[in-house]
Amino acid sequence: MARKKNQSKSNKVRHLITKLNPKSPVSEQYRTVRTNLQFAQVDDNLQSMIVTSSGPGEGKSMTTANLAVVYAQQGKKILLIDADLRKPTVHYTFRLDNLRGLSNILVGENSLQETANRSDVDNLDVISCGPIPPNPSELLGSQKMQTLLKEATMSYDLVIFDTPPVLAVTDAQILADMVDGSLLVIRSNFTEIEEATKAKEALEPAHAKLLGTVLNDREKKASNYYYYYGAN
Amino acid sequence: MEETISLKEIVEVIKKRLLLIVAFVLGAALLAAVVSYFILTPTYESSSQFIVNQNQPEEAMEYDLNDSMSNVEIINTYNVIIGSPAILDEVIAELGLTETVPELGDKLNVSSEEDSQVVTVTATDENPETAVEIANTTVEIFQNEIPDIMNVDNVSILSEAELGPDPSPVAPNPVLNIAIAIVLGGMIGVGLAFLLEYLDNTITTEDDIEKQLELTVLGAISHINDSEVRSDHFTFQSDQSKKGRYDGTQKESI
Questions:
Q1: Do A215 and B222 touch (CB under 8 A)?
Q2: Once rounded to an integer, what is the mean pLDDT over residues A86-115?
Q3: Which residues 12-51 of chain A have a CB within 8 Å of chain B?
Q4: Per the CB < 8 Å rule, is B215 touching A194?
Q5: Is B32 exposed, middle or buried (0-12, 13-18, 19+ CB in 10 A)?
Q6: Are B82 and B110 in contact (CB under 8 A)?
Q7: For residue range B126-161, what is the model confidence (pLDDT) as tens digits?
Q8: Does the pLDDT at position B30 exceed 90?
Q9: pTM (2 d.p.)
Q10: Could you tell me which residues are beta bridge partners of residue B119?
Q11: Backbone angles phi, psi at B136, to 5 degrees
C-alpha cells in the first residue's frame, strides 16, 4: 500500500528542477552525477547511454530529464529520446505533444530531424515516444534503431534514452546492448536489494556497460552538507 | 557477509522508529491503566497472627533445636493444615461462604515473620470485611483444631485482623501495573523496530548499494520538495501557457 502511495506521488510532480531552479542543491546533485559519469567513462567517449531501473516508479524519467538538462547546461548538444514505448512520460516533463516521436522514426514515417523537438533548454533536443506501438521490443531491436542511434550520435554529443524498467520488460536490455553505457536508478527506501541485484544481473549479459547507479529520493537529513554551501 | 551492528546503527534504528516505540509504550500504559482501574475488581488483604508454643518439657532439649532449625518446615506444615479441608470446611460452614475449599485455600497465605515462630495468616478478598472475617475465623478454627491434629495445644493469637477505617485495595496496583506495561511496551516496541528494520530489504543509502550490489554510486539525489520547485514554478507555468504548448489536460492523463 505504501508503495502505491509513493508511486502516485512521484507521478504527480513532474517539474524539471535543474531547469527551474538551477542553483538548488538538488540540481547540484545532478551535476555531481554528470561529473561522475564523465569520470566513469575515461577510455571511451560516452556518446549514448540509457537510464533504467529495476521496477516502475523509481524515478527513471525524472533522472533522465534532469541529467539531460545538466548536460545541456554544460554546453553539450544533447538528445533525449523517450524509449519507453509502453508508458511514455518525457513529453509530459517537457510539455510537448506526442504526435510524432520515436515510434514514427522506427516504422520509417519520419526522420530524426523531423521528430526532434527543440526544448526550452539550450542545446537540448527531445524526441518523445510517439504513438504507442504494439511491438515495442521488436521496434527497439530493429535495424532502424541502430541506424537512428548512429545518426544521432553523429549530430549530438550525447544521446540519452529513457527506458522501461529492466525487470518488467526486455526493452532496456535490448537498448543496453546498443548504447555505450547504462545507468541504474535506485530509489531510496523503495527499491529492494533483490530487485536491484536482478536488474544488475539482467543488464550484465547484454554487454551493458553498467556505469553505475544513482540513488534517487534520498532522505535529506543524510546529505545535509549540500544545504549550506552556497545555497541561494 | 559480515554482520556487525554498531551502536550508531542501533541508535539510528531506534530514532527512525521512535514514533512506533513511543506508541507502544503509551498504548501499553493506557491498556494497563484501563485494565487496572476499570476491569480488575479490587481485592483487599487482611492478616492475623498467631504463635505456637510447643510445650513438651520432657523432650525439650531435642525439640528446641529442631524447632528453631526447621521453622520453615513447621510453617509449611501449618500452611498445608490451614489449606486442608479439615480447617477450611469449618471456615466455610461458619462464615456461610460460597467458595469451595480450593478456592478459599487460594485466598489464604501463611507465612512466618522473619525467622520467628510467629505465623501470619493473610486472607485476600474482594470485600475488605470478608477478608477480615476469613483471616480471623481461620486462625480461630486452627486454634481449636490443632490440638487434635498435631498434638500441640498452645496456640495463642497475637493480633487479630482488623478492618481499618478506610481500607485500600492491595490488588490491582495500578502504578506497578502501568510501570510494568511501560517497560514491556518499550521492549516490544524496540524489538519490533529491529524486526522491521531486519525485514526491510529496501536500499536506503549509498552504502547499501556499494555493499550489497557492488555497484558504483555516481550520485544521490535528495528528495525534492514541492516547495523547492514551486519558487519559480508559477512564472514558469505562465510562461509556458503563453507559448501555448502546455495543455493542462495532458497532465491529467498521466
A1: no
A2: 89
A3: 12-15, 17, 20-21, 24-26, 29-30, 32-33, 36-37, 40
A4: no
A5: buried
A6: yes
A7: 888 888 888 888 888 888 887 777 766 677 788 777
A8: yes
A9: 0.64
A10: B50, B112
A11: -70, -45
Q: Is the pLDDT of residue A162 over 90?
A: yes
* Best residue in A13, A36, A91, A193 for a mutation probing chain B (most B CBs within 10 Å): A193
Long-range residue pairs from B203-206, CB within 8 A, at least 24 positions apart, any chain:
B203/A186, B203/A187, B203/A188, B203/A189, B203/A190, B203/A191, B203/A192, B203/A193, B203/A196, B203/A215, B204/A188, B204/A189, B204/A219, B205/A188, B205/A215, B205/A218, B205/A222, B206/A215
User: How many other CB atoms are found less than 10 A from the CB of residue A74?
Assistant: 15
pLDDT for residue A56 is more than 80: yes
Supply the pLDDT for residue B252.
Answer: 44
Which grid cell is A82?
523517450
Dihedral sign, CA of A216, A222, A225, A227? Answer: positive
Q: Which residues of B touch A70 (CB under 8 A)?
A: none
ipTM of the complex: 0.75
Cβ atoms of B207 and B4 within 8 Å: the answer is no
Residue B41 touches chain A, beta carbons under 8 Å: no
- Chosen from B13, B217, B224, B250 to mutate, greatest number of chain A CBs within 10 A: B224
Instruction: Tell me which chain A residues have a C-beta less than 8 angstroms from the C-beta of B222.
Output: 25-26, 29, 217-220, 223, 226
Interface check B236 vs A, CB under 8 A: yes
B254 touches chain A (CB under 8 A): yes
Residue-wise pLDDT tens digits, B187-243? 999 999 889 888 888 888 888 888 888 888 888 888 877 666 654 444 444 344 444
Which residue of B lies nearest to A31 if distances are taken between CA atoms? B219
The amino acid present at A185, given as its one-letter code, is V
pLDDT exceeds cutoff 90 at B94: no
Cα dihedral B121, B127, B129, B131, rounded to 10, equals -10
For residue range B37-87, list pLDDT tens digits in order.
888 888 888 888 888 766 555 554 555 555 555 666 777 777 788 878 888
Mean pLDDT over A19-24 rounds to 82
